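Hi U.,

Before I forget, here's the chain from the pilot set. I'm dumping it here mostly so it's searchable later in email.
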Amino acid sequence: MLTVLRIQNFALIDQVVLEFEKGFTALTGETGSGKSILLGALNLILGDRADFSVIGPASDKAVVEAEFELKNFHLEAFFHANDIDSFNPTIIRREINNQGRSRAFINDTPVQLNVLKELAEKLVHIHSQHHTIELKNSAFQIELIDTLSGLDTLKGEYQVKFKTWNSERKELAQLKDKLANSLQQSDYNRFQLEELEEIHLDKYNYADLESELERNENIDGLKSTLDNIVLAVESEAGASLTLRKLKALLDRSKGVDSFIDDLSQRVQSVIIELDDIAGEAGNYLEKIEIDPERLSELTLLLDRYNRVLRKHNFLSQDQLVELKERLETDLDDTGELQNLIDSKTEKVSQLRKEIESLALHMHEQRIKLAAKSETAVKELLAELKMPDSQFLFEFVKREELNQYGSTDVRILFSPNKGMAPVSIEKAASGGELSRLMLALQNLISFQKQLPTIIFDEIDTGVSGDVAQKIGNVLKKMGANLQLIAITHLPQVAGKADSQFKVEKSHNDTRTRTYVRRLTDTERVEEIARLMSGEEINEAALLNAKALMN
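Structure:
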């Protein structure tokens, strides 16, 4: 239940604090006095997006704060799920500043608007004049039958599965598109992979093959080099014979001088090393020869390798290996993609069966439970001086599923005796629609057990005894919940348990809106003013007292 509403620097309101009670509260005031400003402030609390043009001139921000009594409304799960401290009363606050920033708080905890809306939907419902137009909307009509029939939980279960089904269908379509693209590319990828497999990247090190080919192509020069090494060491004028002569010369002085002895040993070491070099060079020279077949094989292998390298504009074998692995992965992915599509198709099919079953069950329940709702609406309309009205739900089963299932709903209505019920948009005047909407809101509020409902001129288009009946219905509703009604009708305001008046004042610089609770005496005067205008006479005062009693 809404207990306190505080508004600061919001549009024409500088500051106001309103304390609300249980029961039926009326809000009255002249046209243009600022009643819509109060609704705007309340809508901000309920999660509407901020309109920064409503910030007043008194400061750089507007603040709206509401206190709600939540005892016995079982909202602990909401506070726990959103990690918000649970207090009673709970305070919701919105702040908007002239720099374009908006903040929302629940019990001083900053929250996102979607969280604020989730809580607000459990606390307050505002019925504005445009909601009467919604009565002609097909989506509203199916929401109506589900609420009146108590099918909201079943529909919620269906809508979760329907949303999942739609999401899975979209993913399946994306996978199929991806597979189609992969299949278009797979033939070319397979050709490329076969080409890479032909050059056996895992078998050959092409850098080594290039070195081997270069060696074979230069084998004559290699032989000449080795032959010259042997000649340089072993010929009559070679280094080995020369060094041996030098060694013999040094040995003549062996034992005479240690330095000469060292030189002799070092020369001996060089002789041994040179003889070893010449021996190895000679042995290697005998072994090497040109292998025409191997030369041809190397040329063929490297020609193929270099052709593939150039084709892909690569510089190394490692790049070709990476490409081969990528192509193998892509081809494997195509197979995995097909498996994923098969699995996803089965899941989509199963979900489709589940939602079809739920949709059929909802359709049958809607038809089964409609009569009870139709009777309840007609009984309330009779209280509102429409005793001969007819109100029916017409159901058609649709082939394609939507978020509401497989049911199309149409409200048929006739306000008068002797008239066959027709589609609601063709059947009723403004006053008749207002009464019908009041009857429906009465039933909806009872079904949803909302703590607070606010009506913005639900009595539009009616007067006289009909207005009196509307006042009676609102009075009854106020016995079960907190009801606040903005009204211009004295017959409605007179039935309220308490009353606020919205007023506007002007000075040389600006206009301000004020809201104040009326005393019993002031209520009589205000209701008399609603009846007779600014000139209030004794008869109007007596009539006002009669209405209130």
